[in-house]
Write a structure and sequence with these properties.
The chain is 43% helix and 13% strand. By secondary structure, the chain is an alpha/beta fold. It has a 9-stranded parallel β-sheet.
């Protein structure tokens, strides 16, 4: 097992009992800067948003270049940046570590690294653990959030499999662990009691709210692709309202959006 990294400002946001980090996920510069201006000190990226905006599939290792390009732009801003790197865009741990070094140099303070594959299966836990270990060896200060997709891959016993996998990822040096799809309060509480690093949960409309998740001991609550999907829905709804002659709700003005570029 790797030695614990120093407590960075981003890591510290995961160690506030009763005050989980709410991490909104951006897909471009404007969305990230707007979220930061609204008071969020840490911003994640959403791989679905980055991929869809580029016309590419998510989770298929197709957006390495787009992900690095966005990180280089966002890493120059004042907020703390965590980058969703799917499964690292490679099954070679050393290549994943090289990507982590590149992102850290761009200004990222964390990454989200998942074990789910495009075909709906899970990567071998030993392979994912090796990726985590390689990243931590190359960039000890980078916060690695190790994600397992057990609850999205149709596993017969997703809770038991999640525990087994998260044990391996913690032993490999993961700074935090993430189980999207886990939304039942009792199961979340059990997992909080089983892991020794901060637990990240994906917020869902049908799951516990932020206050309940805080009470359960969750350390980080991610929004994933929610904001990107909400923006798409709002765009389509606005076009429909104009076509139907209905009123359109308040939206940012041209100058306000232009100011987000820093120009």
């Amino acid at each position: 097992m790797t030695h614990p990294a120093p407590m960075t400002p981003f890591a510290a946001l995961h160690h506030r009992p009763g005050r989980p980090l709410l991490l909104p996920n951006a897909w471009d510069h404007a969305s990230a800067v707007a979220l930061a201006a609204a008071g969020h000190t840490a911003i994640g990226t959403t791989s679905l948003g980055v991929a869809a905006a580029a016309g590419l599939p998510d989770g298929a290792a197709a957006t390495r270049a787009e992900t690095v390009r966005l990180a280089r732009r966002l890493g120059r801003d004042d907020f703390l940046l965590s980058v969703d790197v799917e499964s690292g865009f490679s099954d070679d741990p050393e290549e994943v570590a090289a990507l982590a070094v590149e992102l850290a140099r761009a200004g990222a303070v964390g990454i989200n690294l998942e074990d789910g594959r495009a075909d709906g299966t899970l990567a071998p836990s030993a392979l994912h653990a090796a990726k985590v270990a390689a990243v931590k060896a190359a960039v000890p200060e980078l916060f690695v959030n190790a994600r397992t997709d057990t609850h999205w891959c149709g596993h017969d016993d997703p809770e038991a499999e999640a525990v087994r996998r998260l044990d391996a990822y913690q032993q490999a040096g993961a700074d935090g662990v993430f189980v999207p799809g886990l939304a039942e309060s009792a199961a979340i509480a059990r997992l909080v009691g089983r892991v020794s690093v901060p637990l990240n949960i994906l917020w869902t409309p049908t799951g516990p709210g932020l206050a309940e998740l805080a009470g359960l001991g969750v350390a980080r609550v991610s929004l994933g692709s929610l904001l990107y999907r909400a923006a798409l829905a709002a765009a389509v709804a606005t076009a429909g309202a104009v076509a139907a002659g209905e009123p359109v709700g308040p939206v940012p003005g041209y100058a306000e959006v232009q100011a987000l570029s820093g120009s």
